[in-house]
Predict the 3D structure of the following.
Amino acid sequence: MDFETSMKISASGLQAHRAWINVLSANLANIHTTRTAEGTPYRRRTLIYESVPQDESFEAALREAAEGELERVEVVAVVPDRRNFSMVYDPNHPDADADGMVRMPNINPVEEMANLLNAARSYEANLTALNTAKTLALKALELGR
């Protein structure tokens, strides 16, 4: 794998994990949002990733498939989580129904924090791979002197 390919793969991973961290942060920030513009509680969001060939041409895709070349990753969608909202008894809340129950966002803070930790570590791993490729390229240049 050449230097440019390794940089592109690491950069796509960094972008994907940065997007994941942003979505997780938004989820945690809206953990108590009971009313959005749609009139419903905030709905947890998640990402859908897709692997994309390095070169979009048919010839390159065929070569990559034959040689088992690596692909980059891309975020294709941010989708809402379809889990049910939780119900909490709080009769003093402005969004409480007649029984005093409030629909709360479908966000589990423990799950979100675990995902945030995973995303941060994955981001760091991509950054380490990028720095390693850069160091190897610099060492190769030094050998050429």
